[in-house]
């Protein structure tokens, strides 16, 4: 994709389903994100099917529904699709019923494994056929050590996701990918399978469960949500309420570029997305960009992203970052300041 797509119709009218990421889109840890509940409600009112899709493997569907309820988002258990569910389903396809699976992660991950007819264990002495690793705050040296023993003995290694960070109100914190990296370093090998976004398994499971024909993936991360949509052949909406900032969007490579971008979920689903953002001009100046004109900061970001992705070398680390963007005029400088560029 060389630029953001435009439409005069709201996205809620163009797609039959919305597959929402959770942390960074609907809440930050357990703090609600403004406009998110109204955005989900608007999608429902427009007739969209709803999926709540998360790489987080520590919470089961009832817990996710309860958390969503606390931040003002109505949800049902059959709308929740987690990397833990998809990982357990994959293991059930590969292993005989009753096989031992070593759990690195929360009890919710163990329960998902048990629900598909496998036997969750916590010790490598149980001779597990596989190790499944998901994020949990309680994961520490003891769980990682048991996994190392099991993996060196030939167990299959399934990681629910490789998110190196998770968003929080205090900034990004270590995620499951950071814990996977501990074992990767110790064992000098990679997981056999990574189930969660951006890998297609979780997206395929979500589409199947929700029954979507034309889904829109909604997320806040380029490397998981948006790349997962690209890998799954789906369009995507990036909301600027979580991990990705303006500089990160301008630096996105072709496999991580969203179809649309919005400040928040409600406006992203209910307002038009201009193909040519009104009021702004962007010109290339050497390897950088010059923003001129006036208008909303979001439209400035749309214009800058399309221009940045068209620069020579935009896919090979040639983008030098926010220092390569400068303003022509006071209005443009104000927009760049508001975007952190």
UniProtKB/TrEMBL annotation:
GO terms for cellular component: cytoplasm. InterPro entries: GNAT-like (IPR041065), HAD-like_sf (IPR036412), HAD-SF_hydro_IIA (IPR006357), HAD_sf (IPR023214). GO terms for molecular function: phosphatase activity. It comes from the Bacteria. Residues 279-341 form the GCN5-related N-acetyltransferase-like domain. NCBIfam families: HAD-SF-IIA. This is Putative sugar phosphatase of HAD superfamily. It comes from Cryptosporangium arvum DSM 44712.
């Amino acid at each position: 994709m060389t630029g953001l797509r435009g439409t005069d119709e709201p996205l809620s009218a163009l797609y039959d389903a919305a597959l929402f990421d959770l942390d960074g889109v609907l809440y930050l840890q357990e703090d609600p994100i403004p406009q998110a509940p109204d955005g989900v409600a608007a999608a429902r009112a427009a007739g969209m099917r709803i999926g709540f899709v998360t790489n987080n493997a520590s919470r089961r569907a009832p817990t996710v529904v309860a958390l969503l309820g606390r931040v003002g988002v109505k949800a049902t258990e059959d709308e929740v699709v987690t990397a833990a569910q998809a990982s357990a389903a994959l293991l059930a396809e590969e292993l005989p019923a009753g096989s031992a699976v070593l759990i690195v992660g929360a009890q919710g991950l163990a329960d998902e494994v048990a629900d598909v007819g496998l036997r969750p264990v916590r010790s490598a002495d149980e001779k597990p056929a596989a190790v499944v690793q998901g994020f949990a705050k309680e994961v520490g040296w003891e769980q990682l050590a048991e996994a190392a023993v099991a993996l060196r003995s030939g167990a299959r290694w399934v990681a629910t996701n490789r998110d190196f960070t998770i968003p929080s109100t205090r900034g990004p914190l270590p995620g499951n990918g950071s814990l996977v990296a501990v074992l990767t370093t110790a064992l000098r090998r990679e997981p056999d399978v990574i189930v969660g976004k951006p890998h297609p398994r979780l997206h395929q499971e979500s589409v199947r469960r929700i029954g979507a024909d034309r889904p829109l993936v909604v997320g806040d991360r380029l490397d998981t949500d948006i790349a997962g949509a690209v890998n799954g052949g789906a369009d995507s909406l990036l909301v600027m309420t979580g991990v990705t900032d303006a500089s990160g969007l301008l630096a996105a490579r072709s496999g991580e570029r969203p179809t649309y971008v919005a400040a928040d979920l409600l406006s992203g689903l209910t307002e038009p997305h201009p193909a040519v953002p009104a009021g702004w001009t962007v010109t290339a100046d050497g390897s950088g960009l010059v923003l001129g004109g006036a208008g909303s900061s979001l439209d400035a970001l749309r214009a800058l992203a399309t221009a940045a992705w068209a620069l020579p070398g935009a896919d090979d680390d040639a983008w030098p970052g926010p220092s390569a963007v400068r303003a022509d005029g006071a209005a443009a400088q104000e927009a760049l300041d508001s975007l952190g560029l």
